[in-house]
């Protein structure tokens, strides 16, 4: 019925389909921003900072974890719950027991998105 009270012709039935979302096959990005790659730092507690983000339309970053010298990965802390655009973690880095000799360490950050895609970023630092 229209606004004038007349009944018009019945329209034909509409149909359609909904598309499915494309699978997220693109890994996120992850960077270590501090300490800076190639720098020399003091041994002891070191605050490692970085960034992580997923591709536009991706599933979102799920976790970021950091490993020292190919050891076990420990989960970092996001800047706020679920926001991995900035993250941090304290890592204990040992120096050399041989006086002025330097020791090279490798820090690896690993970001995993909610679809299971993984990206890594690695830097080296030295300690005395």
Brief characterization of the structure:
The protein is an all-beta fold. The chain is built from no helices and 9 strands.
Structure, explained:
- With about 130 residues, the protein is an all-beta fold.
- Helix content is about 0%, strand content about 50%.
- The chain contains no helices and nine strands.
- The protein has strands at about 30-35, 40, 45-55, 60-70, 75, 75-80, 85-95, 105-115, 120-125.
- The strands form two sheets. Strands 2-9-8-4-5 form a five-stranded mixed sheet, with no helix packed on it.
- Strand 6 and strand 7 form a beta hairpin.
- The protein is rod-shaped and about 100 Å long.
Strand order of the largest sheet: 2-9-8-4-5
Q: What general form does the structure show? A: rod-shaped
Biggest sheet: strands, sense, closure? 5 strands, mixed
Low-pLDDT residue intervals, each spanning 5 or more residues: none
In sequence order, what are the helices and strands, one letter per element? EEEEEEEEE
What is the CATH third-level topology name? Immunoglobulin-like
Helix content: under 10%
Distance between the termini: 86 Å
Number of domains: 1
> Which CATH first-tier class would you pick?
Mainly Beta
- Mean pLDDT across residues: 87
Instruction: Briefly note the structural class of the backbone.
Output: mainly beta
């Amino acid at each position: 019925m229209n606004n004038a009270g007349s009944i018009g012709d019945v329209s034909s039935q509409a149909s359609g389909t909904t598309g499915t979302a494309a699978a997220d096959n693109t890994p996120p990005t992850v960077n270590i921003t501090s300490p800076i790659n190639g720098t020399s730092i003091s041994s002891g507690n070191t605050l490692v900072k970085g960034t992580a983000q997923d591709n536009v339309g991706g599933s979102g970053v799920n976790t970021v974890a950091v490993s020292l010298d190919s050891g076990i990965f420990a989960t970092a802390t996001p800047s706020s719950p679920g926001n991995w655009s900035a993250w941090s973690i304290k890592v204990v880095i040992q120096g050399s027991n041989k006086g002025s000799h330097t020791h090279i360490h490798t820090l690896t950050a690993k970001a995993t998105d909610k679809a299971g895609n993984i990206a890594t970023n690695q830097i080296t630092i030295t300690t005395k």
